[in-house]
């Protein structure tokens, strides 16, 4: 049941945040490996990107890829949050004295993130027809192209997100700012987690997006980057340090609300379920 609740919470958040994912991806790919000032900027900022995409491609383009996104979120976050939830329920995130352990929380978040992201990677590559084409062209291994490159991003993001969420909830509970089991507790913790995860993930997010979108040769090998470290180095060398934070505004508007909504929905669903089953 933990996995089902986790997947449903992530899907609920995805419906609201998928347009932000579309905007973020286009901004990150804009001017790829071109020095600032040498290319035409189609999108000046997040809001301009929204308006431009809506005008040029139509409003439906802002929900492009929603079906595979929902499937990916259900699978990836269902496994990730579900695994972390089981670890939390089993008491593995607490010390022998019963206090919350940020180190254990970060480790559990990282491990859960790796499991969810790696198993969900083929869905990230595309929906059923795309999966078939990729499988025929590059073989079964091709379905995981870029998956290993994305793991550092997942490890950093998942550990930061879940550790910050759990630690903030624990601190707020100790300070008794809100009543016990209040929805405000989960909301504030999710908001803090959203800020932390965006700051930690932005460079990896840019590199991961470019790894997945780079052209490949007949064997499925990337033609632009050898891996995530190479993507980060090339981006920093060509576009400067701020190139690694390209689209951070869009990243926050996407990852921030998605983190807040998914963690809030997840926490409330679990709270309702465990309350009803007692």
**Order of H and E elements:** HHHHHHHHH
Helix content: over 70%
End-to-end distance? 15 Å
Number of strands: 0
Structural class by helix and strand composition:
mainly alpha
Form type: globular
What are the low-pLDDT stretches, counting only 5+ consecutive residues below 50? Answer: 126-132, 140-144
**In percent terms, what proportion of residues is strand?**
under 5%
Indicate the radius of gyration in whole angstroms.
19 Å
Name the average pLDDT: 81
Largest sheet: none
Describe the structure.
The chain is mainly α and 278 residues long. The chain contains 9 helices and no strands. Helix 1 runs antiparallel to helix 9. Residues 126-132 and 140-144 have low confidence and may be disordered.
Describe what is shown at a glance:
The chain has helices spanning 2-29, 46-57, 66-89, 102-124, 128-138, 147-175, 183-213, 228-239, 248-277. The chain is mainly alpha-helical and 278 residues long.
Task: Give the key terms.
278 residues; globular; mainly alpha
Mind sketching the topology for me?
Elements: H1 2-29, H2 46-57, H3 66-89, H4 102-124, H5 128-138, H6 147-175, H7 183-213, H8 228-239, H9 248-277
Helix pairs in contact: 1-2, 1-3, 1-9, 3-4, 4-6, 6-7, 7-8, 7-9
């Amino acid at each position: 049941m933990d996995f089902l609740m986790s997947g449903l919470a992530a899907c609920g958040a995805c419906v609201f945040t998928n347009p932000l994912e579309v905007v973020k991806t286009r901004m990150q790919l804009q001017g790829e490996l071109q020095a600032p000032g040498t290319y035409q900027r189609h999108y000046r900022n997040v809001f301009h990107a929204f308006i431009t995409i809506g005008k040029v491609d139509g409003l439906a383009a802002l929900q492009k890829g929603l079906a595979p996104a929902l499937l990916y979120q259900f699978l990836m976050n269902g496994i990730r949050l579900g695994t972390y939830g089981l670890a939390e329920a089993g008491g593995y995130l607490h010390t022998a004295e019963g206090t919350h352990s940020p180190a254990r929380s970060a480790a559990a978040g990282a491990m859960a993130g790796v499991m969810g992201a790696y198993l969900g990677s083929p869905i990230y590559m595309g929906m059923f027809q795309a999966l078939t084409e990729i499988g025929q062209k590059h073989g079964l291994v091709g379905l995981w192209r870029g998956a290993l490159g994305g793991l550092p991003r997942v490890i950093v993001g998942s550990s930061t997100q879940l550790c910050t969420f759990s630690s903030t909830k624990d601190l707020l509970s100790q300070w008794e700012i809100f009543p016990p089991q209040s929805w405000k507790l989960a909301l504030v913790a999710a908001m803090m987690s959203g800020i932390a995860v965006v700051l930690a993930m932005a460079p990896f997010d840019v590199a991961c997006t470019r790894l997945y979108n780079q052209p490949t040769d007949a064997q499925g090998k990337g033609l632009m980057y050898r891996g995530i470290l190479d993507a980060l180095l090339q981006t920093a060398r060509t576009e400067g340090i701020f190139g690694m934070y390209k689209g951070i505004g869009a990243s926050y508007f996407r990852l921030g609300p998605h983190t807040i909504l998914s963690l809030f929905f997840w926490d409330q669903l679990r709270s309702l379920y465990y309350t009803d089953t007692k």
